[in-house]
Amino acid sequence: MLALALVGAPRATRSADGPTFAEYAVASDNIDASEAGASILAAGGNAADAAAATMLALGVASPSSSGLGGGGFALYYRASDRSLSFLDFRERAPQGATPDMFARKPGETQESADARARVGGLAVAVPGEPLGIAELVSRFGKLPLKASVEPARKLAHDGFTFTAHTQRILGFVGQEFLRDPLAAQLYGNAPTAGAKLTNAALDKTLQVLATQGPQPFYRGPIAQQIVAAVRRHGGLITAQDMRDYQVIARKPLLGTRLGYDFATAPLPSAGGYTMLTSMDLLERWLPTKAHWQGPERYHALIESWKGGYLDRQNYLGDPDVVNVPLEALSAPDRAAERASHYHPLLAAPVDAYIQPLPNTPEPAAQPDNKGTSHICVVDAEGNVAAVTTTVNLPFGARISVAGMWLNDEMDDFASEVGEQNAFGLRGGAPNLPGPGKRPVSSMTPTIVFKDGAPVLCVGGSGGSRIVTAVEQVALGVLVDGLHPARAVVAPRLHHQAVPAHVDARDLPQATYDELAKRGHPMRPMGFAAQVQAIAIGAPGPERLKAASDPQKGGEPRGK
Ligand code: DON
Q: What is the pLDDT of residues 357-416, one digit of tens each?
């Protein structure tokens, strides 16, 4: 299998708008990782093998965002039988988790309560990535798992590129991060962007994955190391929590909007629901192409997000633990009612879009017992993988084990009803922590179909901003006919109901001012979500139009 890593990944041809490929493409937010995925396709692997290789390489080359200590979601389209599958390998709370574990204690500052969910042992949920990758390959791949591991192992052993993105993130996490031995070894001598780094511990861990599969991560020596590290830092994960972890195959969330069939992330992601809710309203409010221009489009987008994010806060939680009234939430008359609150020229107060469900008991809070990265891969057979993977905040809980970083996905739970998490999302009772629970996510891996054929793979990173960013890039490609490389840099807006601001990037000043006049509290966007996408067209040299968001310095690779 060593030979696989030696097969070079050919580069794109470049149209005036962005990279294009005739046969296959991988779009990730890191060049080493896109090359790892493309090398597997060049060696005869399919989209599942390549997505696994790309994820593993991301964990080596861009470890602040994702890796074996994290988890994610994979949406997979298999061309041979036109089947769609969704693998939930999201991290899961330990059995010891309680609804009040992150609530502010008497005398404690909110900052210190928040920190418990973000840095240290309590922040860590049971990682899903090792098993998720293994299942993606065993269910859909053509090659043995070790083939997908090899490019990542080689990067860890021979060297990967220290990127300007990781350098920026290190500025954000601060000097105390370097007290971690792996952080000190990798970043202690302040490498410059472009330097080659190695990670011997991760090389060894990847060899275990290649030769023994995912089991040692859940019931063997690596599991023991994870449990020991988490408990040393005050966390709750036990050996039993590790053994109990399972990947869940779920039905993707489906919806027809704007003449396209969308397949996207179901619960425990709120992303798919929020995006489809928004598009349902857009269809009603922007009935003709002429409506999709200028302030009218942006005004409608902002209004369309308020209700979906409120629903998330009030009703969404892990569907295996709390009762989520999804059917009632998605009922056509409820959407029609919501649509009726739209004023085409004036911003409505957020609460106008609440639409409380009649006669619905408060969702049960708990039963008694119990950094992110997006990849798109399209292969020559027409299979499509849309995978979003994360350790949550940069370098997760900032605890390294066996060359990898443990996630801090527990911050995606509500710390208390009404409190905001790191992404400003207001917590609701259905998303309080609980034993074995998966926190609600914003990750939105999506594949869009036209007349039964896939036309777009899209997804992104950036916390609560993922949903609105993925939606706007999809609209840029599908409605405006843009190459994805143009769509990812087009003007961007975000509104998540709470806080009641509109964040805007690169809007023409006149449009910005016009939206402010309509009553939208506008402010410049501090940071934008990063989106990867591949548009799939008719056979030919421009069949695949791929884009990696320039913010993280990634580039697509393929042939
Ligand atoms: O699942 C979620 O919604 C978050 N853990 C995603 C975090 C994220 O995108 C961080 N990125 N910048």
A: 876 554 443 333 338 999 999 999 999 999 999 999 999 999 999 999 999 999 999 999
**Averaged pLDDT score across all residues of the chain:** 94
55-91, pLDDT tens digit by residue? 999 999 999 999 999 999 999 999 999 999 999 999 9
In the set 166, 372, 389, 511, the catalytic residue is: 372
The domain containing residue 93 runs over which residues? Answer: 21-245+373-431
Identify whether residues 200 and 52 lie together within a single domain.
yes
Task: Give 282-290's long-range contacts (Cβ < 8 A, gap of 24+).
Answer: 282/257, 282/258, 283/257, 283/258, 284/339, 284/342, 285/339, 285/342, 285/344, 289/479
Same domain for 393 and 453, yes or no, is no
Expressed in angstroms and rounded, the spacing between residue 489 Cα and the centre of ligand 1 is 20
**CA dist list (Å): 515 to 300, 303, 501, 521:** 10, 11, 12, 8
Mutate which of 392, 494, 530 for ligand 1 pocket (most atoms within 8 A of beta carbon): 392
In a domain, 12, yes or no: no
Query: Hey, what are 371's tokens?
Result: 């950094």
Ligand 1 atom with minimal separation from the 464 CA? 3
Ligand 1 mean position, distance from CA 286 (Å): 30
Active site residue 54: no
Is the CB of residue 461 below 6 angstroms from any atom belonging to ligand 1?
A: yes
Give the model's pLDDT for residue 110: 93
CA of 423 to the centre of ligand 1 (A): 8
- Residue 412 Cβ inside 6 Å of ligand 1? The answer reads yes
